[in-house]
Specification:
alpha+beta; Alpha-Beta Plaits; disordered C terminus; 2 helices
Length: about 110
C-alpha cells in the first residue's frame, strides 16, 4: 500500500455539461434507512465520476444511517446531479448538499 505522502493527485475530470464552472468542495449529508449496501451504492456514484471523497462518516441510529461525505474536484452542477441520483435511491430519506465551507444550504426531501 503506498504511503499517503507518495500519493499523487489525479487530474480532475472536466464537466462537459458545465465546462466553464469552477470546481468546488462540497458536503453531502444523507439520511437513509440502514441498508447493508447503502454506503457502497453512494460511494459508487463518485467512483463512476473518477472522484474520491476526502471524508466519509456514517453513524447508525434507530434503523437510520446519517452519512456525511466531503469531496472536491467537481463543479457545483455535477455535485447537484450526484445529489439527485442519491435522492433516487429507494432507501434514501433526504440529501442535503452544501458548499463544504458552510455557505447556503441546498436540501430536498425524497418523496416517500
Amino acid at each position: 500500500m503506498p504511503s499517503p505522502e507518495a500519493r499523487h493527485d489525479a487530474p480532475t475530470r472536466a464537466d462537459v455539461w458545465a465546462a466553464g464552472n469552477p470546481h468546488c468542495q462540497v458536503r453531502y449529508q444523507v439520511l437513509a434507512e440502514a441498508e447493508p449496501d447503502l454506503l457502497c451504492r453512494l460511494l459508487n456514484l463518485f467512483a463512476l465520476q473518477c472522484l474520491t471523497p476526502q471524508q466519509v462518516q456514517a453513524q447508525q441510529d434507530d434503523g437510520l444511517l446519517a452519512i456525511d461525505i466531503v469531496l472536491d474536484g467537481l463543479s457545483w452542477h455535477r455535485a447537484q446531479v450526484i445529489a439527485e441520483k442519491m435522492r433516487n435511491l429507494i432507501c434514501v430519506c433526504s440529501v442535503a448538499l452544501q458548499p463544504a465551507q458552510g455557505a447556503q444550504l441546498h436540501s430536498a426531501q425524497a418523496a416517500g
